[in-house]
Design a protein that fits this description.
By secondary structure, the protein is an alpha+beta fold. The protein contains five helices and 22 strands. The radius of gyration is 31 Å and the shape is flat. 25% of the residues are buried.
């Protein structure tokens, strides 16, 4: 009887040992704790390693695509595309082969085939300029309703009238000065909101008085002549006034931008595993990145969080350059790592797949710490 009991106890002990061994193997080694510093949270049982091929956040999980690149289109020496103030767009060959720009240094003759773009200034829009000046004058009216209506009408014109308003920011009339200051503040807020929302249409640039001509060699500011010209369009010859043109441009080829949204999880630590965007870029491509979201910095406590800009109080991924928790990027597996943060625009210096990750202070990157949360990233790539 005693022998049977001892055998049963021994068998139970062996089973328990086997179960414990399996549990340890399943959970993995317990993370070591630095002698000094915050204490890490235990990893969840069965947690997948960031570089595990079964982990959807690991490496090249996004299907790779190339940015669309159309072959250059050969245009005639007088071909141009005109964006008109009424919103219409026409293109064709101009009746003139050159324009004259009167500058403070004399007249400059510019061949049409050397122009990249031109933008008429306010002096080329006499009716528009008179309207703006009239509304600014109404800001100082003795009638309250007139002042308020002028305020609304000017604010509705957007950032394009910023420089004209700034001319009256210190006006002697107290009402004009007050309203102009308030409108300028409103316009800045609207501009910031448009950038944060990543709207398709870029915010309008402020008008200046003179016309701006961008050539393949330089930019010149002055008064463009002729003020009227003909354009041979597919609808037949059209007469166009400079006062009707918002912008003119010549293109040697079409540019197609590529947009993509990517989620960078807290597991995508730069020292462990970058997240592939799946977008292959070439040197010279312009890349715009906007990101939001947050990540819990558990080594500093469960209530510690940061956004894509990171924060120095969470240490440094790169000393005095990239703070802990910041969104970083690289092009290709061996590309130089750089900070992206909440928003960034840069030109690719090399070719490869754009990759993203979260920079963490080195001693807290590979010790079993977890970083719950994610950054939601929007990309826009414009080919060179």
């Amino acid at each position: 009887m005693k022998i049977k009991i001892l055998a049963a106890v021994l068998a139970a002990s062996l089973v328990s040992s086997a179960v414990l061994a399996q549990v340890r193997e399943f959970r993995g080694p317990r993370p070591s704790i630095p002698a000094v510093g915050p204490v890490p949270a235990d990893a969840a049982p069965g947690e997948t390693k960031p570089d595990d091929p079964n982990n959807p956040n690991s490496g090249t999980s996004e299907a790779e695509v190339d940015v669309p690149r159309k072959p250059p289109v050969q245009l005639g020496p007088k071909h141009i595309r005109l964006h008109l103030l009424d919103g219409s767009v026409i293109s064709g060959d101009l009746s003139v082969s050159e324009i004259t720009v009167e500058t403070s240094f004399g007249a400059l003759i510019v061949p049409i085939d050397r122009i990249q773009s031109f933008t008429p200034g306010l002096d080329s829009y006499p009716k528009v300029l008179a309207d703006i000046e009239g509304l600014i004058k109404n800001l100082g009216s003795d009638d309250y309703q007139t002042r308020e209506q002028a305020h609304k009408d000017l604010a509705a014109k957007g950032m394009r009238i910023q420089k004209e308003l700034e001319r009256f920011a210190s006006d002697e009339n107290a009402e004009i000065k007050r309203h102009v200051g308030e409108i300028l503040k409103e316009l800045e807020e609207q501009n910031q909101e448009a950038e944060d929302l990543d709207e398709e249409a870029s915010p309008d640039r402020p008008w200046i008085r003179l016309d701006t001509v961008v050539t393949s060699d330089f930019t010149v500011v002055g008064k463009v002549t002729p003020k009227q010209f003909e354009i041979a369009s597919k609808y037949g010859p059209l007469t166009v006034q400079l006062a009707d043109v918002q912008k003119g441009e010549r293109e040697s080829g079409a540019r197609e931008s590529l947009r993509r949204s990517v989620t960078v999880e807290g597991a995508n630590i730069a020292q462990r595993s970058f997240k592939s965007t799946g977008v292959r870029v070439q040197a010279g491509d312009k890349i715009t990145v906007r990101a939001d979201g947050n990540v819990i910095m558990t080594p500093w406590g469960s209530n510690a969080a940061t956004g894509p800009d990171g924060a120095p109080n969470y240490g440094w991924y790169v000393a005095n350059q990239i703070p802990g928790g910041a969104l970083v990027g690289r092009i290709g597996d061996k590309g130089q790592i750089f900070k992206i943060g909440r928003q960034s625009t840069f030109v690719a210096k090399g070719a490869g797949v754009l990759q993203l990750a979260i920079g963490i202070q080195p001693e807290y990157a590979n010790e079993g710490y977890t970083y719950p949360g994610q950054y939601n990233v929007k990309l826009k790539i414009e080919p060179k």
